[in-house]
Amino acid sequence: MISTDARTMIEATLPVVAAHIEEITANFYPRMFAEHPELLSDLFNRTNQKSGSQSTVLAGSIAAFATLQLDYDAAAQRGIIERISHKHASLGIIADQYPIVHKHLFAAIVEVLGDAVTPEVAAAWDELYWEMANVLIGRENELYAQAGVTAGQVWRTVRIVERDQVSPDAVSFTLASVDGDPLPDFVPGQYVSVQVPLEDGANQIRQYSLTGRVGDPTWRFSVKLDGEVSTWLHEHAFEGDDLSVSTPFGDLTLPDDGGPLLLASAGIGCTPMIGLLHHLVATGDTRPVQVMHADRSRARQPHRGELGRLVAQLPGATLYQWYEHGVSAEPTTRIGLIDLADVPVDPSSTALVCGPTGFMSSVRDALVDRSLSAERIQFEAFGGTR
Predict the structure, then answer these.
(1) Does domain 4-147 correspond to CATH entry 1.10.490.10?
(2) Which residues are catalytic?
(3) Kind of pairing, strands 261-266 and 242-246?
(4) pLDDT confidence band for 384 (50 / 70 / 90)
(5) Average of pLDDT values for 200-212?
(6) What is the pTM for the complete model shown?
(7) What is the separation of C-alpha 114 from the centre of its chain, rounded to a whole number of angstroms?
(8) So what's the architecture of 261-381 in CATH?
């Protein structure tokens, strides 16, 4: 927790900082990359940098964390920290990198806000930064320890042993260790980072959800043709090739309360749901499960057959599907965008949602309208940056 003096100063200056936060983060990234170009080529998602979406995410995280220090909400803070720390761990972020961010972020704050940044204001926001940084560092070190790796040492070389076409524009890769030993277990719903060498010398990283079964000696993930890393994988990754892949991380996982589940996905966002469903089938789970998936068409739906087979093996599961184009062939298949108006929703359900931002926002609003509290809805974003 930050000090009372810092909290008072942040409360007084948060409206000004929040009004300029996106300008600050847009100033921050070019500063940092000018001094550390390797961070842009080999760590940060440069597609998100070009679009400006990374600046928006950082701005939102800072503003949300600052707001929570004024009206402390442990659950909300834990949600923010979990999402960021799992992503950082999957990238191998270590404590030594936080001072680099601090240096350039505060230089951007001073440049954007000018004389408004008095020594007292600077000290308060400095305290806030290190409060957030230290919480993240602590949680990331816990994740590294739980995974049995040294902090930051998350990368391993694996070999592609199978490649399957799971839709016209998506392929699935099955990975094995190069020495024949089983790959480490993962928690259903988690992802791995994959780093690939691009033609311009950059080593870009993206995350892909694991779709296989826990306990298998191999890992499996699927890739839609969308973005520079995914394109590289489609064009260059085949059976017998090696890949650099991280230890699994991710917080879109099954709750341990045994209550009803609602799994909603769109497009390639079905992949964490496939992993979750494999686990439910393998453990003989009988809880009520509603599976909702939206796609362009049946022909372009990745893992369509696998999704149907998994749901059919769960006695308490129901599958609803929406297609933008086509003909409705089953009672629970609709044509058009996802619409939950006539779908029964148990307000005691935990909802796990994965897909593009617009889809997730629409589903969240629809579920809240159906009396499902926002605290029971968890998200994993998939976009055109793979």
Answers:
(1) yes
(2) 98, 140
(3) unpaired
(4) very low
(5) 97
(6) 0.94
(7) 35
(8) 3-Layer(aba) Sandwich (3.40)
